[in-house]
UniProtKB/TrEMBL annotation:
Pfam families listed in its UniProt record: FMN_red
Organism expressing this protein natively: Sphingobacterium zeae
PANTHER family xref list: CHROMATE REDUCTASE, NAD(P)H-DEPENDENT FMN REDUCTASE LOT6
Residue ranges occupied by any NADPH-dependent FMN reductase-like domain in the UniProt entry: 4-148
Annotated Gene3D superfamilies: 3.40.50.360
Official protein name in the record: Chromate reductase
InterPro entries per record: Flavoprotein-like_sf, FMN_Rdtase-like_dom, NAD(P)H-dep_reductase
Length: 190
């Protein structure tokens, strides 16, 4: 069977370094884990009235269906002012509602943060984990991934070029797949 992993990127920037990390992971040879990017840029800021009045935006419905269909979730995020970019926090909030229909519930997850700075988005990484605890995503604790000075890992073609960064991403991906597989309940289905 194939396991579907959704990647949520915490940056909307066209040339986002975090998105380049995500694209690198998507481009790796397929194992039984298939990675795809989930769009979060079209989700209006969460307003509970949409759900209370039974008129959620089409993008909410699309997003919730996409999350429901995933076997696992990988967050790859920038750090804004030592915390989670609002666009990613908003996506987590949208996916957690309406009340009683938390799309994240019980799925395995992992977090990668990266920054042009030296600290590698540590603040965003850990603030994000606080929300993931509450929505009951089963987030891998080790290895952690704080990728600093990310700009220097990118080649002139706009892709990840640094061998060290590639090696790290490979080992992280392998650990994540082992972690995730423990919790995926549809094992053995085709
Ligand atoms: C930043 N940046 C940043 N970097 C960091 O290491 N810690 C921080 O707290 C912040 N804060 C911050 C706030 C805002 C509003 C912006 C726009 C940027 C810099 C950030 O690391 C840099 O812009 C990255 O390039 C963002 O990631 P993407 O967009 O390349 O994925």
């Amino acid at each position: 069977s194939i396991y579907n992993v959704g990647i949520l990127v915490g940056s909307l920037r066209k040339n986002s370094f975090n998105k380049k990390i995500a694209e690198y992971i998507v481009d790796q040879e397929e194992s039984k884990f298939r990675y795809s990017l989930i769009d979060i840029g079209d989700l209006p800021l969460y307003n509970q009235d949409f759900d209370d009045e039974g008129t959620p935006p089409a993008s909410y419905t699309r997003f919730r269906q996409e999350i429901n269909a995933l076997d696992a979730v990988l967050f790859i995020t920038a750090e804004y002012n030592r915390s989670v970019p609002a666009v990613l926090k908003n996506a987590i909030d949208v996916g957690s509602r309406p009340y009683g229909k938390n799309s994240w519930d019980g799925k395995p997850a992992a977090v990668i943060s990266s920054s042009i700075g030296a600290l590698g988005g540590f603040g965003a990484n850990h603030h994000l984990r606080q929300s993931l605890v509450f929505v009951n995503l089963l987030t891998m604790q080790q290895p952690e991934a704080y990728i600093g000075d990310i700009e220097s890992s990118i080649g002139s073609d706009g892709k990840i070029e640094s061998g060290e960064t590639k090696d790290f991403l490979h080992s992280f991906k392998q650990a994540f797949e082992q972690w995730a597989e423990q919790f995926i309940t549809n094992k053995g289905q085709d």
